[in-house]
Amino acid sequence: MTDMTTDAMRDPNNTPPLATAIPLGLQHVLAMFASNVTPSIIVAGAAGLAFGGAEQVYLIQMAMLFAGIATLFQTVGVGPIGARLPIMQGTSFAFVGVLAGIAATQGLGVALTACLIGGIIHFALGSVIQHLRFLFPPLVTGLVILAIGLYLIPVAIKYAAGGAAPFQMEAESFGSLKHWSVALTVVVVALGLKFWTKGTISNAAILIGMIVSYILAYMLGMVSFDKVAGADWITSIHVMPYGFEFNLGAVVAVTLISVVSAIETVGDASATTKAGAGRDATDEEIAGATYADGLGTAVASVFGGLPNTSFSQNVGIVGMTGVMSRHVVTIGAIFLIICGLLPKIGAVIASMPLPVLGGGVIVMFGMVASAGLNVLTEVNMNRRNMIIIAISLAAGLGLNLVPTAVQYLPGVLKVLATSAVAPTALMAVVLNLVLPDEID
What is the protein's membrane topology class (predicted)? Predict the structure, then answer.
């Protein structure tokens, strides 16, 4: 194979031979595939859609299709849109808490309308993103990412034990040895492959672990392919499948997370150029990445897809291989689009038993939390910053754990207050701006 450290391979506009580019493109897809479809499964469950049903399959298809399309916005670009860097886009975990709450209480129509408007605002941030970065230093972004992971971990445990809703947790089989055996298979296989293999297998460790666990679940009689046989071969795409339902609170909630997502994308763009080319990202690249982020979210929401963002794990692939070619990631995007157009693939994913998904997201959500901790290692842990961390996490996670504490708040404001992420972000931003720096 071509030397991965040559100057040519560090050029975003370089086009490697197909024999090199196709495996590298697949590697990018494998590294993010499980993380990309999981948010749609969780939000679909919160909205009350039948597990494995046609509507859930549709949301999974849109996750794959528009992850590919949004990635093309980044790698190919149109005018100022797109960083034209090897940045892989995918469905964002950052929005899961807010969207699950909105979908459960207000419906998917309200949730996706908020995503559309939030995506448009996110797009507009591309012109001012450089001027907003001061609001989101590592202290704030680290706290937000940590809160996302900590909020989602209980969801992972519920799935691993065999259920996701209160009535499922009361079932006799909830927490059974069979469920935990399937879930822990994902964890054990993923850890083994991650630390004792290299390259593509190591990067796809979670996905491979879920496949092995899926096979075990099938052998234990936990898998039914009835709905796979009935799934269409080609996706029928629908415009605003759940209607247009405006709710100001939902829009504010999604927009707040969109700002955080935009800052995360700025970080990923900067990390990509550092890892692949040893330089800082230009203002044009950062603005283009933000434009693509917002456009991808807005377009996806029109057809029933959830918000997308840049995927940090794919930055690691760029650093590991030294391949900076955006065309490699473009090939990965094409694979995702093909998957998104084939409902049979979505039906197979939707037939996955909850414990298989649970085992995968235990690792994924734990990694989200640890990523937040990693960002916080850049922060000087003086008394001022520790107070900000303490109050922000206490408010965000505390209200999430005791939602009746704000039971008299109206509608989506209650959802926002109990989402863990939004209160943590708001507290962290405000306290970081208000508290004087000289507290030691």
Answer: Multi-pass membrane protein
Which residue, among 278, 295, 271, 273, has the nearest Cα to 79 in the 3D structure? 295
Question: For the segment 317-344, what is each residue's pLDDT rounded down to a tens digit?
Answer: 676 666 788 888 899 899 889 888 888 8
Q: Give me the mean pLDDT over the 142-157 stretch.
A: 82
Residue found by looking up tokens 């209650």 in the block: 414
Helix (H) or strand (E) holding 88: none
Widest pairwise Cα distance in the chain? 65
List of residues 6+ apart from 404 with CB closer than 8 A: none
Q: Are 84 and 311 in contact (CB under 8 A)?
A: no
DSSP codes of every residue in 35-75 = HHHHHHHHHHHHTTPPTTSHHHHHHHHHHHHHHHHHHHHHH
390 — phi, psi (to 5°)? Answer: -60, -50
| Strand-pair category, 89-91 with 308-310 | antiparallel
pTM of the model: 0.76
SS3 of residue 309 by DSSP: strand
Structure tokens at 433: 């701006």
Please state at what angle helix 108-124 crosses helix 248-277, rounded to 10 degrees: 50
Q: Which helix (H) or strand (E) holds 91?
A: strand 89-91
What is the C-alpha separation between 311 and 72, in angstroms, rounded?
Answer: 14
pLDDT grade for 171, boundaries at 50, 70 and 90: low
Closest CA to 401 of 423, 379, 381, 385: 423
- Give 245-300 as a DSSP string: ---HHHHHHHHHHHHHHHHHHHHHHHHHHHHHHSSPPPHHHHHHHHHHHHHHHHHH
CB-based burial label for 281 (10 Å; 0-12, 13-18, 19+): buried
DSSP state of 90: E
**Closest alpha carbon to 265 in 319, 320, 308:** 308
Distance CA 273, CA 285 (A): 10
